[in-house]
Design goal:
CATH class of the largest domain: Mainly Alpha
Largest sheet: 3 strands, antiparallel
Shape: globular
Number of helices: 7
CATH architecture of the largest domain: Orthogonal Bundle
Structural class: mainly alpha
Helix content: 55-70%
């Protein structure tokens, strides 16, 4: 019974932490009617520079039609552009526009600033403990999810 109470407490804490992602740039995304999947797409494209649509679908664990709709919305807002692969005309590549790159960089910087402010409230030993415990908990959760995933 104690595990259930602790699990509920942990879930509540994670819900409360989601407030930390509400930076001014994130508010801008909401005004553009973009959500967390769009943010993840921007992050992946920014990291890679150029991403095939199929790879983005796999990274986001989405179906191709869902990614097409997501990318269409990012194109409409001027954040992403599509181009044809030089050697395979069937492959559509995604890259950030200047505006998309600026927004992705701003989101990243604001997120890092928020995390730095959060960590600054703790002494160094507590920071290390928090990061170690989160790393261990998230690694365990990922292992559980991987174990439950159907093998193909």
């Amino acid at each position: 019974m104690e595990h259930l109470h602790s699990a509920e407490h942990l879930a509540h804490l994670f819900d409360r932490m989601s407030v930390l992602s509400r930076s001014p740039a994130f508010v801008c995304l909401m005004q553009l009617n973009l959500g967390i999947s769009h943010v993840k797409a921007l992050h992946h494209i920014a990291k890679a520079g150029e991403v095939p649509m199929k790879d983005l679908a796999e990274l986001l664990v989405m179906t191709p039609p869902s990614v097409t709709a997501l990318v269409r919305r990012l194109e409409q807002t001027g954040l992403v552009e599509r181009s044809q692969h030089a050697s395979d005309s069937r492959v559509r590549l995604l890259r950030l526009t200047d505006e998309g790159r600026h927004l992705a960089d701003t989101l990243r910087q604001q997120r890092l600033q928020m995390m730095a402010q959060l960590l600054a409230t703790l002494d160094i030993a507590d920071q290390r403990t928090l990061l170690d415990l989160l790393e261990r908990a998230i690694t365990a959760a990922e292992s559980l999810i991987d174990a439950e995933r159907p093998k193909t």
